[in-house]
Amino acid sequence: MLTRLHVIASRIRAVFSGRALDEDFDREIRSHLAMLTDDYIRRGMSADEARRAAILRFGGPVAIKEQHRDDRGLPLVDATLQDVRYALRTLRKNAGFTAVVVLTLGVGIAAVTSMFTVVRAVLLRPLPYGQPERLIEISETNPLKGWTHTVAAPANIADWRARNTVFTDIAAYVGVDDRGASQLERFLAVNGEPQPVHGLATTGNLFDVLGVRPLLGRTFTWDETFEGQDRVLVLAYGTWQSVFGGDPQIVGRTVSLSGRGVTVIGVMPRDFFFPNRTVQFWSPIGVAPDAFVKMRRPHWMATVARLRPNVTLAQARDQMRTIAAELERTYPDTNTQMGVRLEALHDIMAAEARPTVLMLFGAVSVLFVIVCANVAGLQIGRGASRLREIAVRRALGAGRGRLVRQLLTEAFVLSIAGAALGVALAAIAPAALLSAAPTALPLFASPRVDLAVLLFAAALAIVAPVVFGLAPALSSSQADRLTDRRDAPTRRTTAARNLLVACEVALSVVLVTGSMLLIRSLIHLQQVDPGFRPDHVVSFKITLARVRYPKSADQVRVFADLEQQLRALPGVDTVGAASTLALRGYTWTGDATVEGRDPNDYERELRHKSVTPDYFRAMGIPLIAGRMLTEHDGAGSNVALVNETLVRKYLRGADPIGRRIRFGRPTDKDDPWTTIVGVVGDAKQDGMDKATQPEVYVPYAENSQNPATFVMRSAVDTESLISSARQTVRAVDRDLLLTDVTTLNDLVRDATGDERFRTTLLSLFAGVALFLAALGIYGVLAYFVCQRSRELGIRLALGARPTSVFSLVVREGMQPVAAGVIVGLIAAPGLTGTIRSLLFGVTPLDPTTYATAITTLAAAALIACALPAARAMRVDPLVALRDE
Amino acid sequence: MPDDKSEILQGTLDLMVLQTLDAMGPLHGYGIARRIEQISEDVLQLNQGTIYAALLRLQQRRWISSSWGTSDNNRKAKFYSLTKAGRRQLATEAENWHRVSSVIGRLLRLSER
């Protein structure tokens, strides 16, 4: 046993000191031969005879040395190292070829690896909670209201908690928008200077449901959910560090949160987030205990629940549906057709990004195949020009297996270099992507190169050379006779390269078509009229601290005051304010009764916004009929403006002016009637690709909302306008801050950010694919022209017109292109069908797009063919013949 | 047949090398080869180079060690000597050999009858 270890150790040591051992053995053999020669001389031979006899007696020193080398070390490792050294030497000699291959592979691996970091961040990396796969989000659905995924009513949540046996517990929270971005803005006063922080309001059991312990202190208790006991605060690690400088005594410290004294009870671990890193603190919801009994109509709480051990999602769905049906029977008034939807938390958080991420990863994988095909083409081309070298080596006794291994080693060396370059690029790419398109990925996802990503890149580096290296190695190792070097393998390799080109073209057709579909979608989307004129308008949000402005009358007064002061700024054209800006959704929605309709017939999900009179003028939203609001439309005036969609859908086109709407159901007789005094144009609400919904605008004084978003139309340059607005606001109240500062142009641009992100990336991939395919075509054809220069020369000498030689070459080059295009056209519809959900205003089979894609490809292919064809035209017959 | 003479078992050559070093003390490759040829009275005609495969094997097992020195004729040569482990190994193998050869001898005598 020990002996065997000694042998292995000795062999391993030998691998590392091969050269020294070789020299040592050389000396030893020389000394042996010298002594043997001496002996023979002593026996009377001549020096020459003696030397020859000694070698004979010793027996082939070269073979002995070879044997010795094999016995001494690890032959496989030695041979591999030798192959690697040989590969490095040949590759260094062909620096141009090496650079092209490494660069192509590097870019290919970088592209796939970058997208994999994104896939991993969005879909694969587990959320930082205890057993995150057991966490479920429960939302409510209602076909009557068009709800498919809506936040829940508190009383429903309370009943779910009481009746279910499938969850260990259900937590509820408020304060985030559809994307999970925190909308709960508070000001933390540290050393007197208020800092805006975003948070989440939650029930006390949130952290228990998530299965996470705090880094410092404790988390909430259930009782702290309710008002009176809710003056507690849990900080995110980042907030603790940046706002409190990592104060070790933070737990127990009382801080001012928008003017309200609260006690910090805990700090969460560094890698924790919920639901993403826009949330910088967690505080209790602070509702009255009976909110969970009474509030069955307003839907405003998101939920997260933990499955009990051994309960499946399907079982939970069954039971929750039963409970929802019970509630529907008990509370027909609020719960008619109210269903529940249960999804794994991670799935629902990633749901919106999933199609884009998968599409891009699919596209980049296709691109990678093209990259491999391209490198394979280059390898075959080089193999053809190396036939002589390979034939010589075979003649000298190298086995075919040995040659294939050596050629594969070369491929591995190339791919490892490519992978190194690729990982380096992939390490910086996601950050660049995110800074270019901050909203493209879900907020919780933070792409970074981790172990899984490195393993993925390593797998690529191993798989790629097998793909691009094996076929070329097999084909070129076949060269067995020196005479074989001209015709047969040339034809064979040309066929192989044509096949590769056809593949590249087919795959490029798919990518180019896909990207053109997205480009056309984006163009359509950018032509959509937002319904307002975004030029020269800036907007910002102002949140009033409830402690300082407890009554809505106070809030109305301050906002009016601010509006007036801002309007007085030099160069300012118009200033208005709204509870929610266009393209930022709605303030609230509810049932609505149109006067004069059947008593049981009412509308659902009417969108409400509160606006100041000048909001529409500042936004550039046109008045279609009736009049604008004025300063005289104050509290109790019960007038409103509506958008065109409301007139069309609720009033069926009848003259809207003077019609009355009650914000409630026909049975809610206590609510007053509101009179429509004017109609304004539709402005986009949820996104440029979403249809406008019926919307009503009531005077701010009638229904004050906090925060308010101000819009200022002005020819003054944005920077100075914002800075003077900031001064004005702080002159009114020094604790007020401007947040969400943006120009409306940016607002519109950001509304199509996701679309631009995926379109840009896919177009980039398609462009690279197109370029590589063209390069492949060019490579094959340039080689063809070079090989056939004698034939072409003879044709020209015999009087063929150069143009006919040109078209001969182009025809040769376009053959695989045509085959590829046909295959691509057959494959593309199936694949573009999978991105239907990402398209806007264009169908996956749009004929114009297909025609454009094919034209583009054909044009690129023709250019690639034209260069070698032009060279073929200029072949000098004399030179071509002399070369042979 | 001349082939038969040179076909000796690997283990046998190893054993002969060990025995030679035990008897003669430190010796270079040439010396070992000469000695084995002399002792076998040229029954064993080996290519002298093959001795180095055995020397490598024994060295890898740490049964012999080597160092450069000077031969009687004033030539630089690599000298091999037995290690403690080598001496132990020789004893074991010699005993094995005796046992096996006596068995084989008896067998052969039996079948001659």
Your description of this structure?
The complex is a heterodimer of chains A (884) and B (113). Among the domains of chain A are: 2-52, no CATH class; 144-336, no CATH class; 544-736, no CATH class. Helix content of chain A is 54%, strand content 15%. In chain A, the strands form three sheets. Chain A has a six-stranded mixed barrel. Chain A is elongated, with a radius of gyration of 38 Å. The model of chain A has no long low-confidence stretch (mean pLDDT 89). Chain B has a single domain (2-112), classed as Orthogonal Bundle (Arc Repressor Mutant, subunit A), CATH 1.10.10.10. Helices cover 62% and strands 14% of the residues of chain B. In chain B, strands 1-3-2 form a three-stranded antiparallel β-sheet. The radius of gyration of chain B is 16 Å and the shape is globular. The two termini of chain B are 26 Å apart. The A-B interface holds A 3, 6-7, 10-11, 24-25, 27-29, 31-32, 34-36, 38, 57-61, 63-64, 67-68, 71-72 and B 28-30, 47-50, 52-53, 56-57, 59-62, 71, 73, 75-78.
Strand line-up of the largest beta sheet of chain A: 4-5-10-7-9-8
Radius of gyration of chain B: 16 Å
N- to C-terminal distance of chain B: 26 Å
Number of helices of chain A: 28
Number of helices of chain B: 5
Task: Kindly report how far apart the N and C termini of chain A lie.
Answer: 65 Å
Largest sheet of chain A: 6 strands, mixed, barrel
User: Any low-confidence stretches of chain A, pLDDT <50, length ≥5?
Assistant: none
- What is the arithmetic mean of pLDDT of chain B? 83
Total number of strands of chain A: 23
CATH superfamily assignment of chain B?
Winged helix-like DNA-binding domain superfamily/Winged helix DNA-binding domain
The shape of chain B is globular
Biggest β-sheet description of chain B: 3 strands, antiparallel
Briefly, what CATH class of chain B? Mainly Alpha
Chains forming the largest contact: A-B, 27 and 21 residues
